[in-house]
Design brief:
Chain B: It is a multi-pass membrane protein. The complex is a heterodimer of chains A (292) and B (244). Chain A is built from ten helices and ten strands. Chain A has 292 residues and is an alpha/beta fold. Chain A folds into two domains: 193 residues, 3-Layer(aba) Sandwich (Rossmann fold), CATH 3.40.50; 65 residues, no CATH class. The radius of gyration of chain A is 19 Å and the shape is globular. Chain B is mainly alpha-helical. Chain B has one domain. The chains are: A alpha/beta (292), B mainly alpha (244).
Chain lengths: 292, 244
């Protein structure tokens, strides 16, 4: 059950430098070194609802961070804020030390939306060529991402004739163009069969091993165990910032799904345990995993 | 903004249309068919010579308005626009790319319509055909620019189709095809005088009758040009990188 390939790297590289505990200078150094994405008292309103309320969040570099939560918990809104296409009411979002959405960040952040977001009336290659030109990626990058996502056989097929899983991979390939430092993937495996899902997770792992930071949202709880870190969201708040093994340990659950259900439904003792354990999760606990 | 990204976008839009042969056929053939129909209706009357030029002004405008507004709405709804705006894509690149692509289509469409109107339907053209082209292209670009603008206010396909009557019909009614503008009530005449399609119709009528000189026609084209630029600027303002 526990496929957790990230476990090894996490425990080896835990233990952020202690000088980072100084809140001001520490924050500054964080943003320059080990933190890929950071939000500070982020508030987002959609319509008349506050979807995200005073959210503080840190995503370490070079890791796969799973963003999990029931539908409607604010995952997509948070991701949109991180790529800089969401109107933010107050608070800050920074990516690689710069304000989210800054012009200089746009070629360093790859975004895969929930819909496939590709042109149905273009072939796979035509789609990727166009996005490569917009991204400013070299032409050879198109073949690289086609190869990486195993779309060679469909390269000249019109996107509208692709299966859902293939269209999803085109969308992922487009996000990978130009090898961005940060990949924000909104439910990339939704509606895929287990084989395709595991293929995609292999791709994610390889990207992370090469130094990219991946923020992956999902509501398939099995996938939680494939992440290095987990952020559990509920009603616009992060209710746990943990690792897969820590999640199972503190909740005493056998599977990630069970653990998640316990937390979401406020199985009070487990929830309190995990909430207190994460609030203390300062440097030593792995929040500040060093850049490789 | 960068010329590379603008051209890439124009190329991509043309490629999408090339992959859709039926749309190409409809774009290129329908205006000529309708002009032929009007010529047939008014066979053996002088009416076609009066309204024929106006028809040439209408079709590129209406067709480009529809095609552009729907294409842009599709980008908004499919998520591709959101993807592009999270990339190093200028808003101007997006809009100019569309304008270039559809402008080029409009040139081809107009060439066919003008050829059909003059050679098959025997529409008299006194001034140079070149001027006629200039007006028709300006007209098509106007349709593209207003279509981009309209799509910003539409959330669904139903709405965007409803915008056609809003943006297009008043211009046809007040443009002087049904009743010369100087015979309209004062208020409507003033409004009509400021609408861009009126000037396109005036210019094309002048081209076909040869009653006015080239400067008159260029002035009309300039007026349409100002509307195009205005619509593009407002359109790019409505194209928000960040949305609620």
């Amino acid at each position: 059950m526990n496929l957790c390939p990230g476990e090894r790297t996490i425990h080896q590289t835990f233990g952020g430098p202690s000088h980072l505990t100084c809140p001001i200078i520490g924050g500054l150094i964080h943003s320059m070194t080990s933190i890929a994405i950071q939000t500070r008292s982020l508030r987002i309103r959609r319509g008349s609802n506050i979807v995200i309320d005073r959210l503080d969040l840190e995503v370490p570099r070079g890791a796969i961070v799973g963003l999990l939560g029931p539908s409607g918990s604010g995952k997509t809104t948070l991701m949109r804020a991180i790529v800089g296409v969401q109107v933010v009411k107050s608070g800050t979002v920074s990516v690689m030390g710069q304000p989210a959405g800054a012009a200089s960040l746009r070629h360093r952040v790859g975004y895969m939306t929930q819909l496939a977001s590709i042109y149905e009336d273009l072939s796979v290659r035509q789609n990727l060529r166009y996005f490569a030109r917009i991204q400013g990626a070299p032409k050879s990058d198109v073949d690289r991402v086609i190869d990486r996502t195993d779309l060679g056989g469909q390269a000249d097929q019109l996107a509208r004739t692709l299966s859902g899983g293939q269209a999803n991979r085109v969308s992922l390939a487009a996000a990978m163009l130009g090898s961005p430092d940060v990949l924000v993937l909104d439910e990339p495996t939704v509606g895929l069969d287990p084989v395709l899902r595991s293929d995609l997770w292999n791709i994610f792992r390889r990207l992370a091993d090469e130094g990219s930071t991946l923020l992956v949202s999902s509501h398939v709880m099995d996938e939680a165990t494939l992440c290095d870190r987990l952020l559990l969201m509920r009603e616009g708040a992060v209710i746990a910032d943990t690792t897969p093994s820590e999640l199972l340990e503190t909740t005493g659950a056998a599977t990630a799904e069970d653990a998640f259900l316990r937390i979401i439904t406020y199985d009070s003792a487990a929830a309190r345990r995990i909430l207190t354990s994460t609030s203390k999760a300062a440097p030593g606990k792995g929040r500040t995993r060093g850049a490789q | 903004m960068s010329p590379m990204r603008t051209l890439a976008t124009a190329g991509r839009v043309l490629l999408q249309i090339r992959n859709d042969p039926r749309t190409i056929a409809l774009l290129l053939v329908v205006p000529s068919l309708l002009i032929g129909l009007v010529a047939w209706i008014f066979d053996e009357t002088p009416v076609f010579d009066r309204i024929g030029p106006a028809m040439l002004a209408l079709f590129p405008f209406i067709v480009m308005f529809l095609v552009t507004s729907i294409a842009t709405l599709r980008e908004r709804r499919s998520g591709t626009l959101e993807r592009l705006l999270s990339m190093p894509m200028g808003r101007g690149d997006f809009i100019l790319g569309y304008t270039l692509a559809f402008g080029l289509l409009a040139v081809i469409q107009t060439a066919i319509a003008v050829g059909y109107a003059t050679w098959v339907c025997r529409l008299e053209i006194e001034e140079s055909v070149l001027l006629l082209f200039a007006v028709a292209i300006a007209d098509a670009l106007l349709g593209t620019a207003l279509g981009l603008l309209a799509s910003a206010f539409a959330r669904t396909e139903f709405q965007v189709v409803q915008f056609m009557p809003v943006f297009v019909f008043p211009q046809i009614l007040l443009g002087g095809i049904f009743l010369p503008r100087d015979q309209l009530p004062d208020v409507l005449e003033t409004i009509g005088d400021w609408l861009p399609l009126s000037h396109a119709i005036d210019a094309l009528t002048a081209v076909s009758t040869g009653n006015e000189d080239a400067a008159y026609i260029w002035l009309r084209i300039l007026f349409i040009g100002c509307w195009i630029i205005g619509a593009i600027i407002v359109g790019s303002l409505t194209l928000r990188r960040r949305t609620p």
